[in-house]
Amino acid sequence: MTAENQGRGADALMAAITGEPLSDEARADAAFMAEHDSAAADVALLREQLDIIGQALAEPPAPSPAPVPVRQPSRARRRFFTVALGSLAVAAAASVLAGMGWLLTQAGSGADSDAGASKADQAVPSMQSGDTDFGSPHYLACSRVVAEGRATSVEQVPGAASVRVTLDMTRYYKPDKGERELTFVVDEDLVPGLRKGDQVLIGIPQGARQPDFWAVGEQDIAPERALITASLPEARERTC
């Protein structure tokens, strides 16, 4: 990347972040506008994730006469986890701030790939509980499919502790696009309480046919989505 292209990318990114009006000269520059439109889309996505997480945290819990079990994200090896409110707030802020840092790093970087990877590692240290965890750059680089969909059918498999889940895919992170509908037969313990109409986030490793990660419902998906968004730039530069 030339110094001129680096400068144009950084200026376009700053304009997208600040929302400042563009000059006629800038609007006439096709390359600048392409950089600006791409940066504006990334910035809008990050702001959208922060708003969703903020609303989820701010919403007071509804009174209930009896404890209601909370649906947890599930993955292979029955990896369940509970996120405390304070920890979720910190993680959400770190995800968005790190994502903004990624945008700046990508716009201003053009040296060799090793230097770019080093800066990327410094940008998201607090977001990775493990380099192979779902949503990390390594997981995304080694995944075949990472996408969201809405459950259109959840059927018990006769004579088995399994369910057949059909998803209407609404958003692909990797690859950029894919099949409109996906169907999986999975252990019902991996998707406890999944119902028709639920929003679902899945991850499928390379060489696998079934997801090794499931998150169900917007409250569980939102922090994972923010982590994916921040990790994708580095993941695109990695090989598995």
Describe the protein's topology.
Layout: H1 3-18, H2 24-28, H3 30-58, E1 74-75, H4 85-108, H5 113-123, H6 137-141, E2 143-156, E3 162-174, E4 181-187, E5 199-205, E6 213-216, H7 218-237
Antiparallel strand pairs: 1-6, 2-3, 2-5, 3-4, 5-6
Overview of this protein structure:
- The structure is a single chain.
- With 240 residues, this protein is of the alpha+beta class.
- It folds into two domains: 1-58 and 85-127, no CATH class; 139-218, OB fold (Dihydrolipoamide Acetyltransferase, E2P) (Beta Barrel), CATH 2.40.50.120.
- 46% of the residues lie in helices and 20% in strands.
- The protein is built from seven helices and six strands.
- The chain has helices at 3-18, 24-28, 30-58, 85-108, 113-123, 137-141, 218-237, and strands at residues 74-75, 143-156, 162-174, 181-187, 199-205, 213-216.
- It has a six-stranded antiparallel sheet.
- Helix 3 (30-58) runs antiparallel to helix 4 (85-108), helix 4 (85-108) packs antiparallel against helix 5 (113-123) and helix 4 runs parallel beside helix 7 (218-237).
- The two termini are 25 Å apart.
